[in-house]
Specification:
The chain starts with a helix and ends in an 8-residue tail after the last strand. The chain has three helices and nine strands. Strand 4 and strand 5 form a beta hairpin. It has a single domain, classed as Beta Barrel (Lipocalin), CATH 2.40.128.20. The chain is about 20% helix and about 40% strand. The protein is globular and about 40 Å long. Strands 1-2-3-4-5-6-7-8 form an eight-stranded antiparallel beta barrel. This is Outer membrane lipoprotein Blc. InterPro entries: Calycin, Lipocalin_ApoD, Lipocalin_bac, Lipocalin_Blc-like_dom, Lipocalin_CS, Lipocln_cytosolic_FA-bd_dom. It holds the Pfam family Lipocalin_2.
Length: about 180
């Protein structure tokens, strides 16, 4: 199967899986308020994630966010597929669930199917973020740099545990390659 078809198939599978799910955050989890898309825009490195099929086996994962002219958000995810020995990327579109000041979004990488993206902790200077999905099976720790200080990692792990996430299952993403 050609790479572009494989990526499309993987994104479709992930989107179909999440299609039956709400795009709202899991019960008991509150998205960040006073959110600024302008400050959040730009490149973020994936520091850790709970495993899921659409990123399995990927290293050097990053996401770039920018605003489209229609007010939606362009999402460009990139990562290195170790087994395939190549870079992959997927472009998506995000919309706010409530309002632009609440960091609760729905993201689609394929057609009308959306999954939740909820920033539940955010550094005051927008240097790191803790992001939840539709349920407690989806969690990401993101940062502007490829590494996080130990004390920040520890604090984010404690916060994730207090929200009911199984942090023992986190995959710590290596960043040994430059971006493509």
């Amino acid at each position: 199967m050609p790479t572009s078809r494989l990526i499309t198939a993987l994104l479709l599978a992930g989107s179909l899986f999440s299609a039956g799910c709400s795009t709202l955050p899991p019960t008991g989890i509150q998205p960040v308020g006073n959110f600024s898309l302008m400050r959040y825009s730009g490149n973020w490195y994936e520091i850790a994630r709970l495993d899921h099929s659409f990123e399995r086996g990927m290293t050097d994962v990053s996401a770039e966010y920018s605003q489209n002219s229609d007010g939606s958000i362009r999402v460009l995810n990139r990562g290195y597929d170790v087994a395939g020995g190549r870079w992959k990327q997927a472009q998506g579109r995000a919309l706010f669930n409530v309002d632009p000041q609440t960091a609760s979004l729905k993201v689609s990488f394929f057609g009308p199917f959306y999954g939740g993206y909820h920033v539940v902790a955010l550094d005051a200077d927008y240097r790191w973020a803790l992001v939840a999905g539709n349920n407690r099976n989806y969690l990401w720790i993101l940062a502007r740099e490829r590494q996080l200080p130990d004390e920040v990692r520890h604090t984010l792990l404690q916060q994730a545990r207090s929200l009911g996430f199984d942090t023992s299952q986190l995959i710590w993403v290596s960043h040994s390659r430059g971006q493509p």
